[in-house]
Amino acid sequence: MYLFKFLKKPVFIAIIAIVFFTLSCKNKSAEEDGWQDLFDGKTLNGWKVLNQDWRNPDSKPDFYVEDNMIICNTTLNTGGGYLVTEKSYDDFILELDVKIDTSLNSGIQCRGQIW
Asked: Which residues form a coiled coil (predicted)?
């Protein structure tokens, strides 16, 4: 019985200390960690759409934002397109999540030159 009384106080103090330090820690934003977000989750600010369909230069794929995701809709025989950043980057690590339908021919192109 004495052993449990002895352990209760240090364990309780340790739990309080862990809770205090956890709650007092400030979450860093991407910029504070040295990262730069390319997508704000709401708009396509900082991005531009380029057409890939040389047969129909006026057509552009439909890129839009929904539920914090960039969505692209294309129609049959209109070709695809590119969503590119307006700013160039020299040294970077690209981190992203992608959802692609299994029947699509799509991907991510880095450091590419579009004609």
From this structure: none
Give the predicted TM-score (pTM) of the model: 0.60
Tokens of 70: 């960039």
Q: What is the pLDDT along the chain (115 residues), one digit of tens a residue?
A: 555 555 555 555 555 555 555 555 555 555 567 788 889 999 999 998 887 666 666 666 778 899 999 888 776 666 667 888 888 888 888 888 888 777 777 778 887 776 5
Residue with tokens 């230069």: 57
Strands (E), 8-78: 47-51, 62-66, 69-73
CA distance 115 to 80: 14
Cα 61 from chain centroid? Answer: 21
CB count within 10 Å of CB 61 equals 19
